[in-house]
Amino acid sequence: MENKSEDKTLLSYLELVESISCEILSCENKIQNLQDATAATYEGIAENLPKIMDRIDSDNEEACALIEYFISDDESLSGPSVVIETLDAAKKTFEEVSVSIRQMFKKDQHHFKQISDKIGEIENLRKSIFEIVEISNDIELLSYNSVFVASQAGSSGAAFTYIATEIKSLSNQTKSLAYKMRQSSDKLMDNYKIFNDESDSINHSIKSRLNNLDQDLSGVFDKYFSGLKNIAMLIKQTLDRASDAKNHVPAIMMSLQAQDLIRQLLDQISLINNDLATKTHKQLLISSSESGQLKSIEESSAKSYARAHLAKSILNRVTRKLSLSVDDFDRKLRVLRQDLNDVEQDRVTMIDFFSNRQSGLTNKSSIELIFDESAQVLNELVEFINSSTRKKREASHHGLNLKQTLAEIESNFENMRGIIKQFNIIKVISKMEIAREAFLSDNITASSEMFEELTHRMDKNIVIVRSQLDYINHNITSSLDELENNIGEQEKIIVDASGKMQTSIDNLDSMRNNLNETIKSVGKESTVLFELLDESIAGTEKIRNIIDTVKIVSGRYETILEKLDSFRSECKKQSTGVFTQPFDISRFEDLVKIDQAFSVYTIHDDGNNDSTKSITEGNEGAGELVMF
Amino acid sequence: MDITITPTDAAITARISGPITEQDGESLKKAFSELLAASQKQVELDLSMVPIITSTGIGKLILLFRKLKAQARELKIKAINDNLYEMFASINLDRMLKIERN
Fold this sequence. Notes:
Strand order of the largest sheet of chain B: 1-2-3-4-5
Low-confidence stretches of chain A: 603-628
Oligomer: heterodimer
Distance between the termini of chain B: 21 Å
Number of domains of chain B: 1
Order of helices and strands of chain A: HHHHHHHHHHHHEEE
CATH superfamily of chain B: STAS domain
Shape of chain A: rod-shaped
Number of strands of chain B: 5
Strand content of chain A: under 5%
Number of strands of chain A: 3
Low-confidence stretches of chain B: none
């Protein structure tokens, strides 16, 4: 009767073992799936993380290189940048031009002053010419008087009437010439005034421009240097910020490695599953051939129960830790993405402002505006220098008018001298006539004497005018010649300087376009970087889903436990005293060891620096893994 | 960096004190979001107590200006530190933003 009952229990237990084996197989499949899927995902993420770091590095390296090549002012890096070099060259050119303009201005001032000083001389000349006109008027009056006196003298005055008529005729010519000379001297004065006014105006404008020139030039180049330096600095800051965000990556890798270590603990469950499936069978086979089967069944079912319980417990602990670890990893990954996204947004916004047209900046980019406004000042300077030279040339043309007027005065003067010679001849004839006709009236004699005196005065004035003319002519001509030569030289210098300045402006203009395009490329979105990050974030989501699926396995262990519990309860009812022993882990030393030795890896934060983070394993035999 | 936001009927004013550095990105973003969500048409920034600003601040400032403009609202810098103004002027930001100097 007892044997029959034991057989029944054995059969029932064998059926239960079969059913448990099926459940175990299903659990094992799920765990294997979790193992494989998570391993593949970890591998994918682990491959991505160095790529993310490399991507940040390469993006930054490229952008830094461009910035340094174009606008960095740190010569220790790779020598002066292209823009700084171009700006320095342009600055040097403009400074040289500034020095040349100052030297030319000094020379111009000297020549203009020389010519201005001649105003007193021209005034004296005018006075002398006016005096000649006065004398000429007196001679004319005298000639009328002489004709009248001679006609009263009768036949004795006949010769003198002829002389008086001649004097009158010469006097008319003198008057006409004196009038022309006066007109010429007025013209000389007018031309002189025009020349002088223009010289003053040119000098004044050059002087005031020179006063502001250094300030303007330094303003222009300061704007270039400070503007571009600040742009470079701001871009560099965003690149540094991206590099700083990279510091999150070691901690993320640490978290990933921790997950992988936790995942590997699933191997332990597989071992227990294997024991559950194989050792139970083995034990049963032994039990069936031995006496005291019930005792063996009791021990086998108790150990199976303890194994299933241990497997469930480990699975729960692993999945819980894995979930926490995935959450931590996901959070860190999202913080990195957010940080990089923030930097990216700032960079893209700034780069757009620096290099794309802005409605608030007269439809120009910030860089274009820096270049264009500065170029405008430089262009104005070039135009000013060119127009000053043109004006000086025009002023010198008025100087030519001066020379022409002087030539006119000189030619009239020569004619005057011819007339004076005739006056002198008449004077001699007149004296001879007076000597011959001793009885000539006192009036005729007085007229003759007066004529002699006037002729003498005229002579004297002519000598004065001659000397004044010579003096003025010589000085004005030589000053004008010097001015002409100086302007000629200046024109050559200005043509050369204008060319250089224009080249500098053109260089800056082409630099402006290159720089604008370069900065745009620094602002390009790092799509690859974000794709890698998103891929990794999607990976964590996948792991989370797998963990959720594995949680179902825990339910299967629960079913196994229920079945075993129910089996043992039934056995307990039928076989008094055999199934009364406890059936938890504590009864089996080997399982207790597994349970105690089993631990879940945890991350310890040893400080602020991510590189000091370590992973320790459990309580006993805790190892430390320093990852970075 | 500290930010104090004071709303009135006519305007909402954010007074920022201290240098704006990389660490201030989040709080600046939060404060600017508050300004963007406010109903006042006029948004004012008092930067008189800000001696320096990094790319974090510049990027977000330009973005704030654009978003307010898109909302047909106005951004005014009602006070600014001299250092900051020089920096803004060097990159022509003074041309785009309405700035009142002390």
